[in-house]
């Protein structure tokens, strides 16, 4: 039997009017009651009738999500969380995987007015997107954007704080010879994580063992570490710009019979699925995908409904997750 709004009201213990207000994004609903409704909708797997709502509102009921890749478990998790949150509000996702605004799918979404709003996940041509979206009057939110001047409608992670926390952790383990392997320079996250790393070392009067710029790929971490091993000159700890780089470093070390964490400690970034599956398990800096998705969805829905006229970006703190690659067994 199809679940109705009356079932949601009964499950949440609230009135049908309150449930309806939550579905329509009314700000008059208390946060506690709003959460009760959302929890009931999720438990009952209730999906508002998007077609009926579209006819009533003149909207498509579709939100576009543009990503540069789906071969990244962190991006996958953000998209999954976005899908769940927006579905509770009667929206479907249309996903475009592209590196630029000129791609066919992206052009179709934007030019043909096929969406009520767009979420751009780690965009590479954000200025071009913003110009076109503003011209067409399409509400948008950026996640992990590259330029601070575009933070007005964005959700970003404090990557400086993440890089700083990772490095402080290694310093507290007694390390003074710490290397940092960065991703591509075009990414703001690369620059901020590196700045946090350098700041933590500077406060202790230390210089990095080496700072190397490459790609967020396993091969980059592996090749760099193999070079250190061949030269017979290793750092005592490595802060990798993401978990893939960290995995490459660990592969090279263990292939050479070098103990992790006994001889070299390793910290990654993102807390991708693989981080907890490695042996030893990877200490890393978690980007909370659920918080990021919820903040972005909330911001976009407010823009679509006209409840957010003035931009106010949101910055979310990362979390250091301690695991086996930085904990020596007694």
UniProtKB/TrEMBL annotation:
CDD domains: HTH_LacI, PBP1_LacI_sugar_binding-like. One of its GO terms (molecular function) is transcription cis-regulatory region binding. PROSITE patterns: HTH_LACI_2 (PS50932). SMART domains: HTH_LACI. Residues 3-57 form the HTH lacI-type domain. The keyword Metal-binding does not apply. The keyword Transcription applies. Keywords: DNA-binding, Transcription, Transcription regulation. This is LacI family transcriptional regulator. It comes from Paenibacillus mellifer.
